[in-house]
Amino acid sequence: MATFIPEELEQDILSDLSEEIHELHEASEQTLIELELTPLDNELQRALFRSVHTIKGDLGLVGFMPMIEVLQYLEDILDLLRKGEATYTSLLSDLVLKLMDRVSGFVSDCIKHGKTEYDKVALDNTIAVIKTISANNQADHERLLQKAVNCLTESASSGDKDAESAKIELAKTGVPKSLSPEKQDDLLFFRELMKPIEKRAGYKEGRGDRLAVLAFYINGLCDEPLEEDQLAVACYVHDFGLAFMPNNLVTKTEALSAMESNLLRSHVYKSTRLIEHLNAWDEARKIVMQHHENIDGSGYPLGLTGDQICEGAKLLAILDRFDNLTHVSQDGAQPLSQAEAVIAVNKNYKGQLSQKWLRLFNQGMTKYLKQ
Fold first, then answer.
1. Is residue 176 situated within a structural domain?
2. Secondary-structure percent of the chain, ordered helix, strand, coil, rounded to 5
3. Domain containing 120 — which CATH number?
4. What is the distance between the alpha carbons of residues 238 and 95, in angstroms, rounded to a whole number?
5. 118: which strand partners?
6. Which end of the chain, N or C, is surrounded by fewer C-beta atoms within 10 Å?
7. How far apart are alpha carbons 279 and 302 in whole angstroms?
8. How far apart are CA 367 and CA 36, in angstroms?
9. Using CA atoms, how far apart are residues 353 and 333, in angstroms rounded to an integer?
10. CA distance linking residue 275 with residue 284, whole number of Å
11. Cis peptide bond prior to 6, omega within 30° of 0
């Protein structure tokens, strides 16, 4: 491992750099998700090139030199892509994501600790491979991209390598392991109760399980994961209140009047009250109450913003929208595919969702869908 110590810079400059790198990283991930659907979209290809070019320029301005050379060669590959001299593939996506992760970690360590350790051998080996990719050897691109990805992957510890190569297996149900008998009884009861509620509300069967299983997967990507049992209960219970609404209102497809909208929104109170005397599920109750709140304050029932919303509710808000997009007809059209729904969540709810959890959702779903 090599150590890099940057020149002393003003905190404002470092803060601006961190924010822009973070935004460009997220933009790159979103572009890659869309390219999985439309790999020939030249505007998306150009957008990816611009993001990497801007990151390289930003690092050059502050003298973070170790990452600049590898980004230059990555930029060269993306230049071939936008010119039609290379083809977008999942391996190219893997390479971009891995290098963006390296850059983000590098910048974050420099800002937090005043220095960073990085794997110079892995970067040098990666550079040696990707600099050989050109317009004249298109038949070799996939092999070379795989070799470059391997250079980055093999630099990790053996545990990390296993994690990289392991197939992503989602849980079979939304019932976490190692629950106390009392909590397991509660959860199984909620799970069974969710089934007639799903049917009454017009949801495709198994919604509670789908949400809980996906919540476990995304939560597992977080450095500070939430309690799985509380998440699971919230996934099953959050729509219980819909069972006590007029059925023609719950399933109505036309625009709701203001009175109807207010009545429908009250389901969060009804759902919350059903578990208000179960002290074991205090955090789940908070998640249920807040899962329709938005980061920008446009949600309900209380119009909470930012950190006023609990982390579990921020995650459930994303997954709830995603499941609706993939299992409920949209304005008479068929539900979206999972890949299309990931894109729609990012586009349709901009500013409303937690960037932290949205980034983890994007990362997790990108890896999962590639399988």
1. no
2. 70, 0, 30
3. 1.20.120.160
4. 39
5. 2
6. C
7. 23
8. 11
9. 25
10. 9
11. no
Residue 43 neighbours by CB under 8 Å, 6+ apart:
none
User: Angle at the Cα of 353 (from 45 to 100), degrees rounded to 5?
Assistant: 40
User: Residue 134 corresponds to which tokens in the numbers above?
Assistant: 């050109």
SS3 (DSSP) at 4: strand
What tokens were used for 336? 């979206």
pTM to 2 decimal places: 0.70
160 and 185, same domain (yes or no): no
C-alpha distances (whole Å) from 237 to each of 153, 173, 275, 295, 320 are 40, 15, 8, 22, 12
Domain count, the chain: 2
Kindly report, residue by residue over 152-197, the tens digit of the pLDDT.
876 554 344 444 445 777 887 888 888 899 999 999 999 999 999 9
The span from the CA of 63 to the CA of 14, in Å, is 12
Q: 29-66 pLDDT, tens per residue?
A: 888 888 877 889 999 999 999 999 999 998 888 888 88
